Fold each of these.
Amino acid sequence: MRPQSMSAVVTPLQESGLVRGTPDPVDGRQTLMSLTPKCLRLLEEGRAARQDWLTMRISQKLSVHEQEKLQEALALLARLVED
């Protein structure tokens, strides 16, 4: 990505207080970007809202038996991603 394109993406995030840049201690021409506490909080709130939604949908839409099957399937999926 060219610097001009990157700037068009990063600048609004900085202006919104979601990311901040600090000079790279090794290469002063570079900037190290990091998420701000505000951004981290928003990410966590979004994650929590999605989890609440999914939990409610599972309990509303699936029978107890279906929920048990889903739990078994999740255990199998977890095994697939284990290292």
Amino acid sequence: MLDAVKNSQVRIAYLESDWEKKSQGRPVLGQCEKVPDRFRWSVPYDFTITIFQPNVEHLNDKQLKILLLHELMHVGIEVDGNEEKYHVVPHDVEDFYTILDRYGMRWADE
């Protein structure tokens, strides 16, 4: 999956936010969003990946790397002829099987 990102023309903006984002009362560590078509005229990216700094201060370098891997796994790319089409990939489970197999279910709590 990440090879598809590396070998594509996808443009990703990496952002850091000082906002303590929460969802259903739980801290959100990061977020991957596809830039809507209506903003394409002013935003030169296909996706944004935002890391919510107050929620990741406790993470070590390995955990931050896994978090970025997790967010990159949301970048979906389909090739149609010579054109790439993008979408946000939902989780396989609550995370992604690839991350769970490699790093375990509680990788952010190590």
